[in-house]
Specification:
18 helices, about 600 residues, two-stranded antiparallel ribbon, alpha+beta, seven-stranded mixed beta sheet
C-alpha cells in the first residue's frame, strides 16, 4: 500500500535556485564541465531505480529478514535483494562519484548524495549494503598503500565487492580505546588478526563475491587506549597477485542480531580466527584513517533519516487526503461526503507540516554540506579546502543527530496520522518508525554527536568554526535587513544567532570550572544550533520563493507556507532548550547513585 515519488523538483530547487551548485562546482577542476542538465538527468534515473527497483522489496524485506546458515557461516538477504544489487551494479551506480583512475565516473559527491537520499527512502536496509562500501573506498583512497588501492579500489568502485567497517566489540561500543582485537605481524607485510566484532552492518551476505572488511585491532606492545589502535584491510577471500580470489579468510559470521528495524540488512557478529590482513596507514594511528569512513557513515546515517522522513511524509499526506473522519470544527469542508478528509484538521496538518519542514530543511542542509565536501576534496585553492573542511567538520554531528532526531519525531507523527492503521505492518508506517529509531543510536549515539559538537567542534577552538558559520548567517540577515517581506524570517534567525553566541560563551565559562557541564548541556545545545542551521537554510529558501511566487507555480507558495510554519511552530522550541541547557549540572548530580 505504501508509495514513493522521488522529490526531484525540490532537489532541483535547492541545487539550482538556492545553492547555485553548477557555478560552485565549475570552479573545481574535476567538475569544470558539469552542467545542470547532467545533474538532473542522473538524479532522475536514480529516482527510477529507488522507486521502481528497491522500493517494491522494502516491506517484504523487512518481513523476511536475513538468514544465517550456521554451518557455512553464509548469510542470505531477503528475496529480491541480490537481483536488485545486480541491477544497481549494471547501471553503474556504485561508481558515480568515484575516482576515474579506478573506474569511477568522477561526478560530484553532491550527485551521489541525491541518489542516496532517494535510495534510503526506497529501502534503507538494502541501501546499507552498497552504502558502507563508499566509506571503505574513501578510507583506502585516502590512506591505503598503492598496492591496496590497486587491489581493492577498482572492485569497490565497480560494486563487484562491498566493504564494511569493523569497530564495535562485545565489551565496547563508542569507547574504542577498550577494544581487544589483536594483530600479530607475520613477517611478510601481513598480519594475523584475532578477535570478535559485533553490530557489523552488511557484515556478511551473498550479493557480491567478496567483502572487504576494515578492521580495528591492536599491534603487540601497542599503547593502551585509543592511541594504540591500528587499521587493517581484511578481505573475506584473500586476493591473489593477479586479482583473482584465493583462499577463504577466517573471518566468519557467527550470529545475526535480532533488532527492532532494518531487518533486511545483515547486522553481523564476526569472529576473526587468525584472519590475514594488511596495515592501512601508520601503526597505532588507525583511528585517523578510520575517521574518514566514520565521518562518511555519520553523514550517511543523517541521509538515511532524511530518506525515511520524506517517504513517511508522502504516505501520510496521501492517507490524510483520502481518509474521512469527523467534520472540521468550523463546518463541513467536504459537504458532498459523509465526513471530511482528516487533512482539514489543524493537528493533522501540524504533524504533516512538521515532517515536511524537517525533510525539506534536512535536504537543503545535506546538499549544502555535500557541496562543501566536494570543495574540500577537489578545490585547487588551499584556503577554500580548509574553509570547506571546517564547515563539514562542524556540521557533521548536526546532520547525524539533528536530522535523525527529527526523523524520529516526523515518522512518529506520520504514523499517528494513520491512526490505528499506522501500527499495522501492511501500511509500512511502523517500519519507518522502527528504522528511524535505530538511526539515532548507531555510528555514535546522538549524545556522542552532541558532545562532539560542543566539546570538540565549538569549545576546543574557542568557537572559531561556529563563528564562521555565524558570519554567513549575519551577512544574510544584513543583506535582507531592508527587505520588508523577509522580516518574518530574518528577525527570528538573527535573534537565535545572538542567543547561540551568548549560550556558547556561558557554557564555555562553566566548562572551565567543571567539564561535566558540557555533558549536561550538550544534547540541548546541539538541538539549538541545529535550529540555527535549519533556520538559515529555510530563510534562504524563503527568499527565493518570495521572488518567484508571482509566476503562478504553486511550488513556491508551498515552500513559503512551509517556511512560515517552521519559523512559527518548530524553531520556538529553542526557548525551552536554551533554558534547560542553562540549568546545567546541579540537578543531575544531586541524586546519589544509591538512591536510583
Amino acid at each position: 500500500m505504501a508509495q514513493y515519488t522521488p522529490p526531484l523538483r525540490d532537489m532541483q530547487f535547492v541545487m539550482h535556485e538556492v545553492l547555485n551548485v553548477t557555478d560552485e562546482l565549475k570552479a573545481l577542476p574535476p567538475f569544470a564541465d558539469i552542467d545542470a542538465d547532467t545533474i538532473n538527468a542522473v538524479i532522475e534515473e536514480g529516482g527510477k531505480f529507488a522507486s521502481q527497483v528497491i522500493f517494491p522489496i522494502n516491506l517484504s524485506g523487512d518481513q523476511e529478514g536475513c538468514t544465517l546458515d550456521k554451518k557455512t557461516h553464509e548469510v542470505s538477504p531477503p528475496k529480491g535483494f541480490k537481483e536488485a544489487y545486480k541491477t544497481y551494479v549494471e547501471g553503474g551506480w556504485p561508481a558515480l562519484s568515484c575516482d576515474p583512475a579506478y573506474g569511477g565516473q568522477g561526478l560530484p559527491h553532491l550527485v551521489n548524495q541525491c541518489l542516496y537520499e532517494m535510495m534510503n527512502s526506497g529501502n534503507q536496509a538494502w541501501t546499507m549494503y552498497p552504502g558502507l562500501s563508499h566509506g571503505a573506498y574513501e578510507a583506502l583512497h585516502a590512506h591505503g598503500t598503492d598496492e591496496q588501492k590497486k587491489t581493492y579500489l577498482p572492485k569497490l568502485t565497480s560494486g563487484e565487492w562491498t566493504g564494511t567497517m569493523c569497530l564495535t566489540e562485545p565489551h565496547c561500543g563508542t569507547d574504542l580505546g577498550l577494544l581487544r582485537s589483536k594483530a600479530e605481524p607475520l613477517g611478510d607485510g601481513t598480519y594475523k588478526i584475532t578477535g570478535a566484532k559485533i553490530f557489523i552492518s552488511a557484515g556478511e551476505h551473498d550479493l557480491t563475491e567478496n567483502i572487504i572488511h576494515l578492521v580495528l585491532a591492536r599491534l603487540p606492545d601497542a599503547p593502551v587506549g585509543s592511541k594504540g589502535i591500528s587499521l587493517f584491510v581484511v578481505p573475506k577471500f584473500n586476493v591473489n597477485a593477479d586479482g583473482s580470489l584465493g583462499s577463504r579468510n577466517p573471518i566468519f559470521c557467527t550470529g545475526l542480531e535480532h533488532k527492532m528495524g532494518i531487518h533486511g540488512n545483515a547486522t553481523a557478529q564476526l569472529t576473526l580466527d587468525g584472519a590475514v590482513g594488511t596495515l592501512v596507514g601508520q601503526p597505532n594511528k588507525g583511528l585517523q584513517a578510520m575517521f574518514v569512513m566514520m565521518n562518511a557513515a555519520r553523514l550517511g546515517v543523517g541521509m538515511q533519516s532524511l530518506g525515511l522522513t520524506e517517504v513517511a511524509y508522502q504516505n501520510a499526506v496521501a492517507y490524510a487526503k483520502d481518509r474521512l473522519q469527523m467534520r472540521a470544527l468550523s463546518g463541513p469542508k467536504a459537504p458532498d461526503k459523509p465526513a471530511d478528509p482528516i487533512i482539514v484538521h489543524p493537528d493533522v496538518r501540524k504533524m504533516l507540516l512538521t515532517a515536511r519542514a524537517y525533510a525539506e530543511g534536512g535536504r537543503a542542509l545535506g546538499l549544502w554540506t555535500t557541496l562543501q565536501l566536494d570543495k574540500e576534496l577537489s578545490s585547487d585553492d588551499a584556503d577554500v579546502r580548509k574553509e570547506a573542511g571546517e564547515m563539514v567538520a562542524l556540521i557533521t554531528p548536526i546532520i547525524k543527530a539533528f536530522i535523525t532526531d527529527n526523523a524520529w519525531i516526523a515518522t512518529s507523527h506520520c504514523m499517528q496520522v494513520f491512526g490505528g492503521h499506522g501500527y499495522i505492518a501492511e501500511w509500512g508506517m511502523e517500519q519507518y518508525v522502527r528504522d528511524a529509531r535505530i538511526n539515532m543510536i548507531y555510528e555514535g549515539t546522538n549524545t556522542v554527536q552532541s558532545l562532539d559538537l560542543l566539546g570538540r567542534k565549538v569549545l576546543a577552538d574557542n568557537g572559531a568554526k561556529l563563528r564562521k558559520f555565524g558570519k554567513m548567517v549575519q551577512e544574510f540577515v544584513e543583506e535582507e535587513g531592508t527587505n520588508e517581506a523577509m522580516q518574518e524570517f530574518v528577525n527570528p534567525l538573527a535573534d537565535l544567532g545572538e542567543k547561540v553566541v551568548k549560550l556558547t560563551t556561558e557554557l564555555g565559562m562553566k566548562a572551565f570550572g567543571n567539564q561535566d557541564e558540557v555533558g549536561a548541556a550538550s544534547v540541548d545545545y546541539l538541538r539549538v544550533v541545529g535550529h540555527l542551521v535549519f533556520g538559515y537554510f529555510w530563510a534562504r529558501m524563503a527568499k527565493v520563493a518570495l521572488e518567484k511566487q508571482g509566476g503562478g507555480d504553486p511550488f513556491y507558495k508551498a515552500k513559503l507556507a512551509t517556511a512560515r510554519f517552521y519559523f512559527a511552530k518548530l524553531m520556538p522550541e529553542t526557548a525551552s532548550l536554551i533554558r534547560t541547557a542553562r540549568a546545567g549540572l546541579p540537578t543531575l548530580v544531586e541524586m546519589e547513585e544509591s538512591w536510583f
